Amino acid sequence: MLELYNVSKTFNPNTVNEKVALNNVSLTLQDGDFVTVIGGNGAGKSTMLNAVAGVFPVDSGRILIDGLDVTGLPEYKRAKYISRVFQDPMLGTAASMGIDENLALAMRRGKFRGLRWGITSKERAYYKELLATLDLGLENRISTKVGLLSGGQRQALTLLMATLQKPKLLLLDEHTAALDPKTAAKVLEITEEIVNRNHLTTLMITHNMKDAIAHGNRLIMMYEGRIILDISGEDKKKLTVEKLLEMFGKVSGSDEADDKLLLS
Q1: What pLDDT, in 10s, does the model give residues 39-55?
Q2: Which of 25, 23, 76 lies closest to 54, judged by CA?
Q3: In 3D, which of 168, 174, 154, 219 has the Cα closest to residue 198?
Q4: Within 13 Å, how many C-alpha atoms sit on residue 11's CB side?
Q5: pLDDT at 263 over 60
Q6: Are 27 and 203 in contact (CB under 8 A)?
Q7: CA 4, 49, 134: angle at the middle one, nearest 5?
C-alpha cells in the first residue's frame, strides 16, 4: 500500500545549516499494516511523513501509494489517497461549526456538493451511531460547536473524520503528544479500534516507547535519517522498553538516547 525506494531529503544543502533528514530510506507497508515510528529529535520521523504527504519534494527516490507513483504529485493531489491527524487538536476540525456539520464535511470529501439540505435525518442518525463507538458521549451533543470540546474529544472526532472516507493511507503525526496521559491513552485506544475496524494502512509517529510497543503490528526506529530497526510479529510482542533501548544502542552504535525519548 505504501512503498518508499531510496528516498533522500537534505535541508539547506551546501550551507552551514545543512541537515540530512532522510538518507536513502526504503520502506514497504502491506495493506492493513499499522506501523509505529519512533526515534529521537531530528531522526527523520516527521520528515518521512511529510515526504509521503507531499509537503515538500524529495531530492531523490520514489514514493508509491497503492502502486501509483506519487513522487512528483503536489500535496493537494495526494490528498485523495491520504488522511492525516496532526499533533495539535485544534487542527483538522472547524471550531465554529457543529459536530454534525464537521462530520458532513468529512463525508463529502472529494464529492460533488450541490444545492440541497446540508444534513439529512438519515445522515444525522448515522453520525450518532459512529459517535457512540467513541464512548465519549458525543452522540448526545451532536449539534455542539466543536470549539467547545476538550482536546481529547476533538482529537477523537478528527480521527473519525479522517477515516469516514476510507483513505489508502492514514498518517498520525504524534497525535496524542498534546494530551494528558489519561486522555492520550483513550485516544490511542480509539485509534487502534478505528484502524482495525476499517483495516487501514497506518503510519503513527510517537515519542513514547511504551505506546510504540503496545500499538500496531510493526515498529520501526529511525536514527540520523535512516531506519535502523524494523520489528514485527512475535518479536514485537516480546519487546520491552529496556530491550528496545539495548537494540537501539547496538544498531546505532550510540548509547545516547534522546532525552525526550527516554522521558516519554
Answers
A1: 988 899 999 999 999 99
A2: 76
A3: 168
A4: 11
A5: no
A6: no
A7: 120
